[in-house]
């Protein structure tokens, strides 16, 4: 059934290549569809490497948790104990941020440096004074790639070894992962998927660069540099299910509000209830590639879906995950019904919101609301590489308590909420765990 469903979903979403897998107790099922690259097609199978992007964070966190268990560091310690030269936009935050706050996205760092192409983690950390601070450490959760790249430098300072070697020693090898690697030099030794994005005519074209950052940009490895396969990701899930020393990573550390990604952060993992069962997972989006891993510990269950087209790969993966949960476990996400359109509320929130790399536009035509999100035009114009397409304006429905849900398009089902200041003025919009600040 998995093979039939995967083929149906991939064709309907026009994704050139997908791979999926289910782990249920001792049973493992794989499925694959299509090709790695429309210009140089090779069949996708369960061993084909895809860029995992942010799923990498689960590997970085695992290495730090194991270093802490070995007495090499205290996760509650300030980051400056290990990176004394650290300078951030806010001096107080520089002194206060802890390693644990990097791992559960409460450090107050915005998403990432726009030009995060540094060849070393030291180089990346040296630029962090340019990154806006969105709140005091521990004040709120906001997803940060930059925080995880800084955590990678902590790993190097604690061990005196390259980040990638420590992750291999403490995470990849203990889990028996044979096809999980960093960087194109390692990726090209295996069969690998190439991302695809639509051109101006809507035709899918292979994406360049292969990952979201140029080759050699090690400064982004800890937050998003790993490539892996369905077969290895199911082993990774089994390793976390079986390793008692890692179970604390799935305990809630900070709540998430109105997010389709989860209702809390553990250590790296997003935690959420699906049909009354607790699930832990992480997704990743690269340049025309999307990855999803979801684990249900109480059912000894995991599902993986990988796709090589943007933006269609995201909803395709979500559909695979939802089908597997329903078919194998009999659990389903609860459908959310937006409120009737309210013109006064709509005009109050309409406007532009931004973070360092992206703009978010909420608009109303007097009958409905839409949300569009994409890369900043100046950043896109300055880049010599192809960049992922923007998400076109899609219908947005309001919910109680300043929450909302996107009801169509590539982000259908994504939830978020609005932030107000002390006077009640809307000053921010959260989407996908990230805070977009309102532009006046």
UniProtKB/TrEMBL annotation:
Organism: Actinoplanes octamycinicus
UniProt name for this protein: CubicO group peptidase (Beta-lactamase class C family)
Occurrences of domain Beta-lactamase-related (ranges): 3-311
